[in-house]
Specification:
The chain has 102 residues and is α+β, with helices and mostly antiparallel strands. The chain contains 5 helices and 4 strands, in the order H-E-H-E-H-E-E-H-H. Strands 2-1-3-4 form a 4-stranded mixed β-sheet. InterPro entries: GlrX-like_pln_2, Glutaredoxin, Thioredoxin-like_sf. It comes from Salvia divinorum.
């Protein structure tokens, strides 16, 4: 959990992802298309990725990827992020975290 906290606080937006996951790809694109440059941490390319997956699941991420953190706080997985995008609250969250300026 300490490692998740350390990684998730490195940038305004952090996405724990898997390089082969189509939902992870869609979530990354969502942020890139809004002009956000998230820190992407690919769990399947990390030698301790399984430990991180386990820690993310203990935090409530199911599945463990994609797991999105904004401003160091867990937002959730793809369903939560898409809901926030559709209802307009994701943009405000990104502005408040300093990930968006407009």
């Amino acid at each position: 959990m300490d490692r998740v906290a350390k990684i998730s606080s490195q940038r305004a937006v952090v996405i724990f992802s898997k390089s082969t996951c189509c939902m992870c790809h869609a979530i990354k694109r969502l942020f890139y298309e809004q002009g956000v440059s998230p820190l992407i941490h690919e769990l399947d390319e990390d030698s301790r990725g399984k430990e991180l997956e386990s820690a993310l699941m203990k935090l409530g991420c199911s599945p463990a990827a994609p797991a999105v953190f904004v401003g160091g706080k867990l937002v959730g997985s793809a369903n939560t992020v898409m809901t926030l995008q559709l209802n307009g609250s994701l943009k405000k969250m990104l502005k408040d975290a300093g990930a968006l300026w407009l």
